[in-house]
Amino acid sequence: MIQQKILHFHVCGGAGGGAKGFNRGQARVGHVVAKPRCIGGVDVDPAGIADFDRVAGVPGTVLDLFTAEQYAAFHGRVPPSGWREASPQDFQRAAHGERPHVVFMSAPCKGFSGLLSDKLSVSAKYQALNGLTLRAVWLTLEAWQDDPPEFILFENVPRIATRGRQLLDQIGALLTAYGYVFAETTHDCGVLGGLAQSRKRFLLVARHAQKVPPFLYEPEKKRLRGVGEVLDALPLPGDPAAGPMHRMPALQWKTWVRLAFVEAGSDWRSLNRLRIADGILQDYAIEPGANWHRGVLGVRAWDETAGVVTGRGSPTTGTFAVADPRPGYGHEYAQLGVKRWDQTAGVVTGQKSPGQGTLSVADPRTGFSRGAHTNIFRIVPWGDHARTVTGARHVTGAAACVADPRAAAGFRGAGKYRVTGYGEAAGTVIGASTTGQGAFALADPRPARPWRDQTMGVLALDEPVGAITAQAEATTGRFAVADPRCTWAGTAHRNKLKVVPYGSAAGTVTGADRIGSGALCVADPRPEFARGGREVFQNGGHYGVTPWSGSAYAVTGSGQHDNGRWSVADPREPAEIDPPAALPAPDDRLVAVIQALDGTWHRPFTTFELAALQSYVGPEDVGFAMHGQSDSAWRERIGNMVPPAAAEAVMGVIARTLLLAKAGETFLLSSEPIWVRPVAIAASLDLPLTSGEA
To answer: Of 108, 9, 100, 105, nearest to 56 (Cα)?
Structure first.
């Protein structure tokens, strides 16, 4: 295989993304393979050139491309002493004396960007910045006018085609004067490089007609990748081994709050769906979470064990709620529930029987007063005639009930529950002789009888005892006596339930050692702590409290407050233990964690991840850091660069065309489409084209 060098030079090369991608470009024609090599680059940013040096494999050059007038318009002051305008010879020196085959330029795009208002875009400052596009092309053409580069590629934002129309027309005329044909095209860097982002860009492709006759074919299109395909290969943000570029950015609190309300897969337009009145979010509350416990507002499954119930047990301090699968407990899904006529019905579910929800109604329209069922449940007055007796003879089938006014009729006449008058004869005693079956009660007008006074009576000590009968019991007479003599005095049981004074001798200790069987208690006058603590009562330390300065005891497998000294006397004020939490101020910068309802972590990209999405770094570059210490400066250079993967694809087709040209070929038959749309028609025609014709 023969290697053919393809030399490339970069104007406004920034951090070297384009140079890095061009160096990786591959092409082969027959036994000849392309070997791209960067010969230099220029940029006004010293930090960008420091990054360029690392990835391009050749030193870059810090060079200001402004004219003196442009410098004054952009900076608002005249150039400092020692400053001079760049010249074509500066480009030659920056290329280290070599001539490039391809020149790639990515002039500043801020003045053309849609992020800039129309008013600012026409200001003198940004018009001067926009003017660098024409000046960069002119310096390139003048630097190698004797041996022009085969290709000149001019990259920018798509809006340059409208905001920079006048400049593009001047650039086209300049290229034509130097023997180039060109086309204004657009492309998606994500599709060309297989990135995890869609990045639409403008690209002017200029081919020197005399040096490069072959067609330029379109590179293979690749699918856009998901963000996770790139990030999954990287360590988690904040990993010390990942370097300073992989730290989470400290954003303003108000920015974190806005991010929290953006739905996954959406953007800032999610915020338009929030309901706000007088600057206050209406449907959500933001509370500090510093004092909340793990499991705040947690709900336990029905078959899970409940957490420990603490003194502050509430839904906001732990998992103190339960998902109760039982229907009918205070909510709409009540078993056998009946709705009032004026209530709304419960949700109609697939379970539609009365036993499965509030699926019944108290309907005031009985329907009994209409049609064939006029006599249902009807009661006929005593003075009315009965209705027709039908085959259905129960109460719901006809007017089969009567309002009977006869109080003594029926069971009442038989004496059920009747009380017989004192002068009346008793009713017949039947086999079933309870009060509910006859007149077995008597209205006795006599006052209390002597036997009543004697029932369960107590005689005085000096009263004679009544006659003792065969049925003598406490309930049949006065067979008890009020004896004033204390049975404990002078008997063997005088110590029963007795408390011995502290200075007295204890009673005899008997075989029955219960409190009720002797003087087994003592009136101890000594205060509890006069004896140096609770040693007598401590036992295993039940409910014991350890001093703040004391050592804790060994923790056992069953350590609880009631079986040892597992509490501590904490002298700290409550504010020291649980200081009041407050939300940050809107402009406070901090690192927050947004835990979404679906369990994912919503967060901004780290600077290293942005570089990875641009294909500037990969998993093998973990720990890589760009020049300087500023995240904002790193992010600006990353955002401005051409993705190396897209640049690699572009260099691949350019290098193949150059190999064909050097081999003397003017035509290549290929199954690949000619790069007419979106990029490379400039390599197949000899006449200048406008953007509309391309």
So the answer is: 9
**Closest-CA residue to 481 (of 455, 451, 450, 457):** 457
Type of residue at 151: F
**Residue 275 belongs to a domain:** no
Structure tokens at 248: 């989470």
Q: Give the DSSP H or E segment for 179.
A: none
Is residue 345 assigned to a domain? no
| CB of 171 closer than 8 Å to CB of 691 | no
Tell me: the pLDDT tens digits for 336-367?
777 788 777 766 665 556 766 676 788 776 65
- Residue 32 has a CB neighbour count (10 Å cut-off) of 16
For the segment 648-665, the average pLDDT, to the nearest whole number, is 88
Q: pLDDT class for 249, splitting at 50, 70, 90?
A: confident
| Tens of pLDDT, residues 1-47 | 899 999 999 999 999 999 999 999 999 888 999 999 999 999 999 99
Long-range contacts of 399-403 (CB under 8 A, 24+ apart): 399/375, 401/377, 403/379
Higher pLDDT, 221 or 469: 221
- In this structure, of 5-19, 280-294, 494-508, 612-626, the range with the lowest mean pLDDT score is 280-294
Following DSSP, what letter does each residue of 81-116 receive, concatenated?
TT-----HHHHHHHTTT---SEEEE----TTT-TTS
For the ranges 118-132, 451-465, 474-488, the maximum mean pLDDT occurs at 118-132
CATH, residue 176? 3.40.50.150
- Determine the structural domain holding residue 125 and report its residue range: 2-237+613-683
**pTM of the shown model:** 0.59
Q: How far apart are CA 415 and CA 401, in angstroms?
A: 24
CA dist., res. 477 & res. 488, Å (int): 28
Residue 674 Cα distances to 30, 113, 656, 678, 691, angstroms: 20, 30, 13, 10, 17
Residue 391 CA to residue 397 CA, distance in Å, equals 8
The answer to whether residue 672 sits within a structural domain is yes
Instruction: Compute CA distances 95 → 40, 60, 439, whole Å.
Output: 5, 9, 133
Rounded Cα gap, residues 636 and 50, in angstroms: 15
Matching residue, tokens 């209530």: 343
Residues 359 and 252: their CA atoms lie apart, in Å, by 53
Tell how many helices (H) and how many strands (E) occur in the chain. 18, 28
Tell me how far apart the alpha carbons of residues 415 and 304 are, in angstroms, rounded to a whole number: 63
User: Which tens digits make up the pLDDT trace of 510-522?
Assistant: 766 666 666 678 8
Distance CA 614, CA 609 (A): 9
* Rounded Cα–Cα distance for residues 132 and 109 (Å): 10
Pairing of strands 441-442, 458-459: unpaired
With contact defined as beta carbons under 8 Å apart, do 373 and 390 qualify?
A: no
Asked if 352 and 345 count as a contact pair (C-beta separation under 8 A), the reply is: no
CA–CA dist 442, 39 (Å, integer): 132
Task: For residue 258, give Cα distances in angstroms to 254, 280, 636.
Answer: 6, 13, 23
Q: What is the mean pLDDT of the chain?
A: 79
**Rg of the chain in Å (alpha carbons):** 51
Determine the residue type at 382. W
Greater confidence (683 vs 180) lies with: 180
| Cα 324-326-330 angle, rounded to 5 deg | 85
In this predicted structure, what is the pLDDT of residue 265?
82
First to last CA, the chain: 37
Report the domain count for the chain.
Answer: 1
Find the largest Cα–Cα distance for the chain.
Answer: 156
The closest of 209, 105, 215 to 150, measured between CA atoms, is: 209
77 has a pLDDT exceeding 50 = yes
Residue 304 lies in a domain: no
